[in-house]
Amino acid sequence: MSIKVTKVTKAKLSLKEKLDFFPAVASIVIAYIYALLTGLRRTERQAKSLSLHLGYAVFRKATTRLTTTQMQYILPPSHKIYEQHSKKTGRLPESVELGDGALGHWVGDRNADNVLVWFHGGGFGLPANMGYFKFYAQLLRDLKASGKSVAVFSLTYTLAPIAVYPTQLRQAVNCLRYILSQPNRDPSTVFLGGDSAGGNLVGGVLSHLAHPHAEIDSLPLHSNLGGAVMIAPWTLLEKNFPGIEIYHGGDIITTAVAGPWSAAYIGAGKRDYYTDLSTAPADWFTTFPVNSVLITAGGNEIMLPLIQDFAAKFKEGFENVELFVGYRECHVAPIYHLELGNTTKTEQGKKVEAVLAELMV
């Protein structure tokens, strides 16, 4: 079923933001040139290849220099990227209106034995890029080679600050609710996945299943979900990270985005265990209705210490948790590398495939 989206709400640009585009683009070009001149000799704390090094530098500068609304203005919305991918692969787009402004997009056969529900990242303010749909296609191809029948259901949630928390969490819960409402779909054949802000939503949905959010309808399960994957989950929405040594040159983001992205998502609300799972006590995780959880991170990403701390606390309350770190990889490398046109499979990507192949029926 293909649906036509006639109107997409975007945050409005101020006059200042409109006038700022030219100097912003100029600064990004300068950052690219600087990275080109200095990137021929790289250390282990930087990208493995020059092309990746340049891609990291451009994204790092763009996300630091441009506001969330500026990025939304120039980037195609998630559902348009999905339609482009469907056209390139010769498949009819199959999208579903989930209510509350959310859309779900099928990649692969919706009647497959297993469904991987994916929540994309981007600080809650950026749409899914083509790298996501290449990542889904790669997963489906390789899992099929392992004898697994899988489909991906990708959520398009309302971006911040157009909507704020808990809207995106409610949309993620209702996305899972829709999948579980399909005929003969047992929770054990449903898997959650997400990266960065999407990893935050994975944690938020698992939290809601175990501890229903006061503003979101509960979703009782008769058995555990098959598993969950959290790639570089953003589970601590702090603005500053004192006492942590951070080197930005090997990643695609900087600490400068933490404040604006967090503020856009939270709005006038308050942070809690659903937004900041890193602050939850260990026993919060004990009743999560999922068989197994994989957390991955890049060895060069700025969030690595925070992810390591989060995984350790998670494991205190929930035994079946594994942390995997990809050597010399950036934040959400399995997806962003594909967006840059680098098809060499990342260590994190290999690990995600191996774990899913083991868990799926």
TrEMBL record:
GO terms for molecular function: hydrolase activity. The keyword S-adenosyl-L-methionine does not apply. The chain crosses the membrane at residues 21-40. Pfam families: Abhydrolase_3. SUPFAM superfamilies: alpha/beta-Hydrolases (SSF53474). Signal peptide: none annotated. Residues 116-332 form the Alpha/beta hydrolase fold-3 domain. Keywords: Hydrolase, Membrane, Transmembrane, Transmembrane helix. GO terms for biological process: antibiotic biosynthetic process; monocarboxylic acid biosynthetic process. InterPro entries: AB_hydrolase_3, AB_hydrolase_fold, GDXG_lipolytic_enzyme. This is Alpha/beta hydrolase fold-3 domain-containing protein. It comes from Penicillium nalgiovense.
